[in-house]
Amino acid sequence: MKRISAVLITYNEEDKIQRALGSLQAVSDEIVVVDSDSTDATVEFCSRYTNRILTKSWQGYREQKQFATDQASHEWVLSLDGDEALSPQLAEEILHWKEQDNNFEGYYLPRKSFFMGRWIEHTTWYPDWQLRLFRKSRGRWEGGRVHESFRVSGPTARFKGQIYHHTYASFSEYLEQLERFSSLAARDRFEQGQRAQWVHVLCHPPAIFLKNYLLRLGFLDGKPGLAVSILAAVSSLFKDLKLWEIQSGSAKEMPMNSRDA
Questions:
Q1: What is the C-alpha separation between 67 and 48, in angstroms, rounded?
Q2: What's the CA gap between 114 and 126, in Å, rounded?
Q3: What's the CA gap between 246 and 240, in Å, rounded?
Q4: How confident is the model at residue 43, as a pLDDT?
Q5: What is the pLDDT of residue 120?
Q6: Of the options 3.30.470.20, 3.20.20.70, 3.60.110.10, 3.90.550.10, the CATH number for the domain spanning 4-166
Q7: Is 41 exposed, middle or buried (0-12, 13-18, 19+ CB in 10 A)?
Q8: Number of C-alpha atoms within 13 angstroms, CB side, residue 97?
Q9: What are the residue boundaries of the structural domains of the chain, listed by start?
Q10: pLDDT tens digit sequence for 56-86
Q11: pLDDT digits (tens, 9 = 90+) for 99-111
């Protein structure tokens, strides 16, 4: 039977972390938590599920996740964020998979987000495929300041069971994260040689709204689907405007490992 190390990075996750850890108990053979100096009860809650809790000052999403993966005792790693949890169907699927032979090096899991009181089943939010179960020796975490992902060398497959993503508790929380992530993403794009133009600022937001609300059937998710489609357009606008700001030289320089915008 395969053995799995579940790994999580945390920072002030006391409201959600127990749901994540509880969902991992049945499928994981160890749980490794790497905390970046939480000031709430996150570490205390984690200690109820595992004694493998390490502290590492924040170095960036990619670096934190790579460090957590390196601490895993087992070859197979299941990576989860503090605001996520395995669905019962996914847990059963993983338990069955542990007893089977396979020729894959990693598995993509569909992520489903809870927002404004309901599960989002359309737009670009679903299915949000994430490679989260993998052989740690077959790849590394890659990416910039945001949008980190594990890149595996070898064949991959997909599971049907979902990761439940418990997103933002309010619009204010979303906007706080949008402010931070859009600044980080704009800096990444600038360093990759991308440049914003006025046509991007004018055309990208409406195109992204139409893609989410009409082409990806966001209207079937009711008001939350409308909100997700609008927020996707706003996110694009923020990134382009902040990239424009960096190009003009008026943006504040941001270190690679910054949490803040």
A1: 22
A2: 11
A3: 10
A4: 98
A5: 97
A6: 3.90.550.10
A7: middle
A8: 25
A9: 4-166, 171-248
A10: 999 999 999 999 999 999 999 999 999 999 9
A11: 998 899 999 999 9
Residues near 141 by beta carbon (within 8 Å), at least 6 away in sequence: 62, 63, 65, 66, 69, 148, 149, 150, 151
What tokens appear for 35 in the block?
């905390």
Whether the full predicted model's pTM is greater than 0.85, yes or no, is yes
CA end-to-end distance (rounded Å), the chain: 45
Dihedral sign computed on CA atoms, order 94, 120, 14, 136: positive
Mean pLDDT of 93-104: 95
The residue type at 192: Q
> Which of the 8 DSSP states describes residue 16?
T
Strand (E) or helix (H) holding 178: helix 171-191
Query: Which residues make Cβ contacts (< 8 Å) with residue 78, sequence separation at least 6?
Result: 4, 5, 6, 7, 24, 27, 28, 94, 132, 133
CA distance 163 to 130: 9
For 129, list phi and psi in degrees, rounded to 5.
-70, 130
- pLDDT tens digits, one per residue of 142-180: 998 888 999 999 999 999 999 999 988 777 888 888 888
Could you tell me whether strands 156-158 and 118-119 are parallel, antiparallel, or unpaired per DSSP bridges? unpaired
Q: Residues 18-48: pLDDT tens digits?
A: 999 999 999 999 999 999 999 999 999 999 9
